[in-house]
């Protein structure tokens, strides 16, 4: 899990990174058997537009990325997340920023997905990536940022296949390509670069084996973190346990009957039902927010790195989206 949030500089001049690192070591010692620490990085290379506005008259924010050690999806992962956020929120003031994101790496116990599993995940992404987009807040949409772009739109080989053959034939064509592709070819087909909603690059032959979900926004609470972790786990489980070819065939028949009558829907058949069933199967249903389609709460969202046309697009959802004072 990767979290990018804001941490203030303390009034007495103590480095927040030093304090955060020490607290992370204590956290790992108390809630985990591993001695591997959290990785904390101060982003001096960040653009400074979103750093200028203070949280209040005393606290000046700094951007930071926090990378956890590997967290096993057993009965202890919720406690690990809760205690981590308890420490962070006790010692730091946080600000949500549209340039922040929560990135979740998933891999099996054996450290890498085998090629059959990778094919299933790639097919699920081609089939349902647009549905996962609708579950994320509007500020994570391709039209307003380029950190987690669609795997089925734009300059992606899978997108070109779908565009060339049409949405239904293109889906079958994409599935056939994935069925006969090598591991690296699968990765290149759905993820030509890491800035995709589902980043497959770590699953290449030379990678460490995980698949990364980059669509979630930056979070400032354990509850939101657990929602997106549960969402990601459920999606991967759904991909591995579903008969995706059968789902695609049912989608084709459903579309022929109904899509002409409902041109605005575009929702892939059974996505939410299957996702919730997988969440229940994994025992993480209770960690999902009842509002599966998340919102931004724009009044408390810091926005600086956006163009006027992007703000205008967001205001179609809520008039409270505005550039922050430091923009």
Question: Which key phrases capture this entry?
Answer:
327 residues; alpha+beta; 6-stranded antiparallel sheet; two-stranded parallel sheet
Structural class: alpha+beta
How would you describe the oligomerization state of the chains in this entry?
Answer: single chain
* Overall geometry: globular
What ranges have pLDDT less than 50 throughout 5 or more consecutive residues? Answer: 1-13, 44-50, 259-267
Put simply, the count of helices is 10
Biggest sheet character? 6 strands, antiparallel
Order of helices and strands: EHEEHEEHHHHEEHHHEH
Proportion in β-strands:
5-15%
Helix content: 40-55%
Count of beta strands: 8
Mean pLDDT: 83
Structure description:
With 327 residues, the protein is α+β, with helices and mostly antiparallel strands. It has one domain. It is 42% helix and 10% strand. The chain has ten helices and eight strands. The strands form two sheets. Strands 2-3-1-5-7-6 form a six-stranded antiparallel β-sheet, covered by helices on one side. Helix 3 (115-135) runs antiparallel to helix 5 (167-180) and helix 3 (115-135) packs across helix 7 (222-241). 36% of the residues are buried. Mean pLDDT is 83; it is low at 1-13, 44-50 and 259-267.
């Amino acid at each position: 899990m990767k979290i990018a949030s804001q941490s203030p500089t303390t009034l007495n001049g103590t480095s927040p990174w030093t304090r955060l690192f020490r607290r992370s070591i204590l956290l790992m010692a108390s809630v985990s058997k591993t001695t591997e620490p959290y990785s904390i990085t101060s982003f001096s290379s960040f653009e400074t537009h979103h750093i200028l506005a203070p949280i209040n008259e005393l606290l000046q924010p700094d951007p930071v990325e926090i990378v956890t050690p590997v967290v096993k999806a057993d009965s202890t992962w919720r406690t690990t997340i809760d205690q981590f956020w308890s420490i962070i929120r006790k010692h730091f003031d946080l600000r949500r920023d549209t340039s922040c994101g929560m990135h979740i790496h998933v891999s099996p116990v054996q450290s890498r997905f085998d090629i059959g599993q990778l094919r299933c995940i790639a097919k699920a992404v081609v089939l349902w990536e647009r549905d996962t987009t609708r579950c994320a807040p509007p500020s994570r949409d391709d039209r307003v940022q380029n950190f987690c772009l669609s795997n089925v739109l734009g300059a992606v080989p899978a997108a070109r296949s779908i565009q060339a053959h049409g949405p239904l034939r293109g889906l079958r064509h994409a599935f056939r390509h994935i069925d006969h592709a090598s591991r690296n070819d699968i990765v290149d087909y759905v993820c030509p670069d890491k800035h995709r909603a589902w980043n497959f690059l770590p699953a290449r032959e030379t990678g460490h084996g995980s698949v990364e979900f980059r669509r979630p926004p930056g979070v400032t609470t354990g509850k939101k973190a657990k929602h997106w972790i549960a969402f990601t786990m459920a999606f991967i489980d759904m991909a591995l346990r579903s008969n995706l070819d059968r789902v695609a065939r049912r989608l084709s028949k459903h579309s022929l009957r109904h899509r002409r009558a409902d041109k605005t829907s575009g929702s892939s058949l059974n996505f939410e039902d299957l996702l919730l069933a997988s969440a229940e199967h994994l025992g993480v249903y209770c960690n999902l927010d009842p509002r599966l389609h998340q919102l931004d709460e724009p009044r408390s969202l810091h926005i600086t790195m956006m163009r006027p046309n992007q703000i205008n697009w967001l205001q179609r959802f809520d008039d409270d989206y505005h550039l922050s004072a430091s923009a």
